Each structure stands twice: as C-alpha cells, then as structure tokens.
Amino acid sequence: MRKYNTKAYECFLNNIKSVPCAHCGSAFDRRNPNQRFCSDKCRFINKVKPLPNGCWLWTAATNNKGYGTFKYCGGNDKKAHRVSYEMFVSPIPDGAMVMHICDNPSCVNPDHLRPGRHADNVDDMVRKGRQAVGARHARWNPQSPHHKHNPSSPFYVGPAKT
Structural domain boundaries of the chain? Predict the structure, then answer.
C-alpha cells in the first residue's frame, strides 16, 4: 500500500473538490491527488490517436510485438485491444482471442476487433497471405545461413544416409 504524508493526505481528504476530467471535462471527486481522469474509459481514450484509415492508434506503452498495454481496473497490464473490446462492445467469451480485422496490432478501434478462436485467426492469416512461407520463412528457406539443408550453415545435417 502506498504511504502518504499523513498530515498532507488528511488535508487533501478534508479539501476534496470536484475537478474537471482531463479528457471529457466533466467534474469528478478525486480519490488521490494524482488522479486526472473521471473513469478508466476517459483514461483509455486519452491514449488513442484516430487515423484517417479508421484505426485508433495506441500511443501509450506497447509490448515487443506492437500490441498496446493498459493497466485496467487496478490490475496488471492487459492488452489494450482486449480492454477496448471489453469497454466498448462486450465481455470476451471464455477461451476466445480478440482478432484485428485491420491487421494493425496497435489498433484499438472496437469496430476493427472481433472475437474468435485461434483457428479463426490462422485461417484469416492464410486467407490474407500473411503467413511466412518460402523465402519469408527461415526454417524452410535453403538460402538461409541457419537452414539445416544449406552446406555452409553450422546447422547443416548433410545428405540423408540410406
């Protein structure tokens, strides 16, 4: 639990005033001196930049794959596109993932998101030609310096013995 200067915190509690939300401007009573937004929804929307193609670009923290992250309901970081779907559409069904129709991992526009199974996501990837095949797939590319069928590779296994 965060420790506040007791005297200053008591003073703050005794002088709570309604302040305007930094996003929507509606008045709200702060719960702590650093609170700037009236709700998680306003805090979320403040981290979004709409693009001309309809995507809502996540401008805050991202993970190593480009997906936005957001602390939601006082918990751990959650993927921002999942939070967006839950906030603006409905709860995510058990066992489902949230797929991007626009194929932009940093997009959090609920109109560009839909729930689905892993198999649905793979089918979508194949249908759109985004799977790694041939020269784009290092494991199956004999020209790759790391391929087991490339004689100059340290991973070379040689011809099959009969």
Answer: 1-38, 39-120
Tell me: the pLDDT tens digits for 97-144?
A: 999 988 889 999 999 999 999 888 888 888 887 776 655 555 555 555
150, 143 contact by CB (below 8 A): yes
- Helix H, strand E, coil C: the string for the chain is CCCCCHHHHHHHHHCCCEEECCCCCCEEECCCCCCCCCCHHHHHHCCEEECCCCCEEECCCECCCCCEEEECCCCCEEEHHHHHHHHHCCCCCCCCEEEECCCCCCECCHHHEEEECHHHHHHHHHHCCCCCCHHHCHHHCCCCCCCCCCCCCCCCCCCCCC
Structural tokens at position 150: 């490339």
The pair of structure tokens assigned to 90 is 């409905």
Start-to-end CA distance of the chain, whole Å, equals 68
